[in-house]
Sequence to fold (360 residues):
Amino acid sequence: MDRAYNFSAGPAALPPPVLERAQTELLDWQGSGMSVMEVSHRGPDFRALAERAEANLRELLDVPENYRVLFLAGGATLQFASIPLNLGPPWSTADYVVTGNWGRKAVSEAARYLNVNVAADTESTGFTTIPDPATWSVRDDACYLHYTPNETVYGVEFHTIPDVSDAPLVADMSSTVMSRPIDVSRFGLIYAGAQKNLGAAGITLLIVRDDLVGRARQETPGVVNYRLMADSGSMWNTPPTYCWYVMALVLDWLREQGGVAAMAEHNERKARKLYAAIDGSDFYANPVDKSCRSWMNVPFTLADPTLDQAFLDEAAAARLLNLKGHRVAGGMRASIYNAMPESGVDALVDFMAEFEARRA
Ligand SMILES: *Cc1c(COP(=O)(O)O)cnc(C)c1O
Fold:
């Protein structure tokens, strides 16, 4: 078997033990004589899986009692619309902080349902900075403040939680969840699509404080109504059972790795190595302000962009895959989520030095 190092931003690499277990259990899940895809989501076996996933998740992130954990379909993008429908009455205002294109997309979806106040926007810096929260123009009447702790395309990450508003803090953690410990009690709502750090595309984790459940507008579709989903154990309709199962395996794996504190150490070490390689060379560059460089997504450019394709081709030949930057950002991007081993970063750093020596 020839597993490559997959630097894709998402869907992203999964831990091999998770894939191996899924493979072993595929035809006969827990002695059921069926795959997990073929069993009822309401049966005792699947319910036990759902309970195990939630218990592990609560333990890993130290989720307080007064928060509900939901497993929803539709990706993080569906939450861009679901959040205003659930938290914002018609004609209300919500604050949004835009530090990259995901925050921008969240604004454009929310603007269908309420009045969006863009409290800060870093596009003029090419999305390379995070302005001091004290300078954000938040509104006193905002029903929540939305931000993106890690912008996946530009590689910009908040290393502290902003504290500027009394409105509930809503965070799109799709590309950073489980990469480090977080204080859930600081948030009103956290959500994350699974395909970066939690499993396979098709399921979205949502952690929401009790008092924010039950406020949905009358026209909110049931599948994204937090009250209906919380009261039904996220089984108001048929959930994406296989994706839920894969997430449960990833959560088991995370526990075996020592949890999110161990992940933070591992991720910081990988990021430090890669940024050191970029900064230590005149051939590679990363434009992001050092105070907000992402641990998860590391964009970089080559001094001579006509070499981009050669870099990608030769990297691929060395089994270092999916290093092409997002089409809006250009250049390269190495996504180094939890499942990327340190050996993958070492192999990339070695390849970069060798490519530079040969081609610069
Ligand atoms: C990938 C990503 C999304 C989009 O997720 P979908 O599952 O495609 O809806 C949203 N926000 C962030 C920060 C992401 O990284």
